[in-house]
Amino acid sequence: LGLNGNCYLMYENTINNSAQLTTQFRSLAASTQYDVVKLNLLGDTTYTLSEHIWEDQEWYYASRVAYGQLIVNGNGAVIKCDGEEYLLNFMYIGREANVNFNNVEIRKFNHVFINQGNLLCQHCSFIENYAYKLDVYLSGSGAVIHNYNTAVFDYCEFTDNDAEFVGYGKAHMDASILY
Questions:
Q1: Residues 36, 9: contact at Cβ < 8 Å?
Q2: What is the mean pLDDT of residues 18-43?
Q3: Sign of the C-alpha dihedral, residues 54, 108, 87, 171?
Q4: How many CB atoms lie within 10 A of CB 9?
Q5: Mean pLDDT score of the chain
Q6: CB–CB of 27/15 below 8 Å?
């Protein structure tokens, strides 16, 4: 039993290809349950995401976890944006969500994470993520994470991530990885 006597289900899935990962992310984005979802990716596999599954007033996302817990065992797999370059954010994490990534490489997204929940990344690589925003707000910052709550990166590597703000002139953001 979970909090307040509620029952939680645990789902565990092995994800064989990009279409299956997109389907799983679509299901998570629509979920209002506090379930635990464990995804096992295949090593030496590249999963490409191009569909925006969820959007807020400002950005498009390839995935959203609003409730419950998501555990992704990457096994050395790569998740990358395959749409229009850098126009898709990878994952929105809601206030009531816990997300864990282990041993996965994430590349070529705008923001990788917009985090309002709890995020743990272990042995992950973040490569060539580029937060770009064209407006008068500082929302282009944080190529890997735009953080509002708790985020832990343990034994992670960050390579060629950048953030740029274009509004009243072009400026490189000092917080190109974390904002």
A1: yes
A2: 92
A3: positive
A4: 11
A5: 83
A6: no
Main-chain phi, psi angles of 68, to 5 degrees: 80, -155
Quote the CA–CA distance of 178 and 153 in Å, as a whole number.
11
Q: What number of helices (H) and strands (E) belong to the chain?
A: 1, 15
Per DSSP, the three-state class of 30 is: helix
Q: What is the pTM of this model?
A: 0.85
DSSP code of 152?
A: E
Under a CB-based contact definition with an 8 Å cutoff, are residues 142 and 111 in contact?
Answer: yes
For 140, the token pair is: 């282009």
Q: Determine how many CB atoms are found less than 10 A away from the CB of residue 23.
A: 14
pLDDT score of 173 more than 50: no
Taking residue 127's Cβ as centre, other Cβ atoms within 10 Å add up to 16
Residue in 48, 162, 175, 179 with CA at minimum distance from that of residue 110: 162
The residues, any chain, with a CB within 8 Å of residue 139's CB and separated by 6 or more, are 58, 59, 133, 146
